[in-house]
Amino acid sequence: MQLSCKWTGRVAALAACVVILACKQTPTSSAGKVLRASPMGLDPVPLPWGKAGLAEKIELGRHLFFDARLSADGTVSCATCHDPLSAFSMSERFATGIHGQVGNRKPPTVINAVYNRTQFWDARAATLEEQAAGPLMNPVEMGMTPALVVSTLSAIPGYQVLFRKAFGDPVVNMERVTEAIATFEKTVVSGNSAYDRFVAGDRGAMSPSQIRGIAVFREGRCNACHEGKAFSNSAMANLGVGTDKPQPDPGRFAITHDEQDWGRFKTPGLRDVALRAPYMHDGSLKTLEDVVEFYDKGGIPNRNLDNRIRPLHLTAEKKADLVAFLRSLNGEGWQDATAPERLPQ
Ligand code: HEC
Ligand code: HEC
What we know:
With about 350 residues, the protein is mainly alpha-helical. It folds into two domains: about 50-190, Cytochrome Bc1 Complex, Chain D, domain 2 (Orthogonal Bundle), CATH 1.10.760; about 195-325, Cytochrome Bc1 Complex, Chain D, domain 2 (Orthogonal Bundle). Helices cover about 35% and strands about 0% of the residues. It has 13 helices and four strands. The protein has helices spanning about 1-5, 15-25, 55-65, 80, 130-135, 145-155, 155-165, 175-185, 195-200, 210-220, 255, 290-295, 315-325, and strands spanning about 190, 235, 265, 330-335. The strands form two sheets. It has a two-stranded antiparallel sheet. It has a two-stranded antiparallel sheet with strand order 2-3. The longest helix has 13 residues, at about 15-25. The two termini are about 30 Å apart. The structure holds heme C (2 copies).
């Protein structure tokens, strides 16, 4: 609580009211960490702050997120592919699910997913609640069935206690499981970055190169898609990533069968982006420098390339400044979402 209340001194009056209100009602999880309603630079997290049972629901969700018993062979949890050590993403291109099966897309980060208007690279889920059922039932990821999720959790007395605390009775069902996981995910947020502190008036928060990078970000029209507080408009775009490969991932096209959607993927947010290499839906770009080179060349030409993606011809200094700016977006909040010391028995 101390941290989020301290920020009130620095932010505008209206935002301060929101934070003060949130501070009054901010629940403390049983892990002893104070949950933050909205770190600096972010919109308030849409959770019923102050409502009884919220902290308990977050706690239940935190345990479920880190529990590999929620997978068919007991080896894979959400955190296997959304690892806090890799900013809730993964340091490999593709994720390995149950029985060592390898997927074909890079796990996006869970950080600030609460601000996404759609979930998955192809936007096929509308909400975090809807999304959470996906990996649980995906045969390549966790390989469960709803019945198996219910019977597995019902057989663990420790979970009966956590479900009762969160929902008033120990009944386990898929709706409660996905609600608890989604509620936890909504607390995995990132704000208060060097960039936010700079915008709030702390001129020393960013280096000269990072400050110059703000202008390069605009010059490169990056903000046409990476806009707003989470640096994403949640819209779909074709940059050509992977279209030069033998069997390109069709992206959104596989969902809509609309030719315009071929090769389109959701614009990811850019907060903490420096911590989750490799990049893009196929993890094909290893570093932020590679990403900037990719945009500088105008993406990869293909039959559906977005007309906002054009060669930029940036100087070496501007490229370095742009990377420096991206590094100024590392924030805090999500570091409090740690693995439970012990899982329910
Ligand atoms: C085997 C690896 C793996 C596991 C396990 C896994 N995920 Fe994912 N997750 C992914 C991949 C890969 C994607 C992107 C898939 C796509 O877009 O088609 C993804 C996407 C997501 C997204 C969407 C984020 C965005 O920006 O669109 C969220 C949220 C998420 N996962 C949460 C979870 C939760 C909660 C669990 C546990 C119930 C979980 N994941 C388990 C690999 C995994
Ligand atoms: C037309 C919309 C659009 C514009 C303009 C744009 N981006 Fe992106 N950006 C995207 C999309 C869509 C992706 C994911 C593409 C994919 O995986 O196929 C992406 C991915 C990224 C990633 C990788 C993030 C991750 O989690 O893997 C970074 C970094 C990035 N963009 C930075 C920039 C910068 C810097 C600029 C300006 C030079 C820029 N973007 C311009 C839409 C855009």
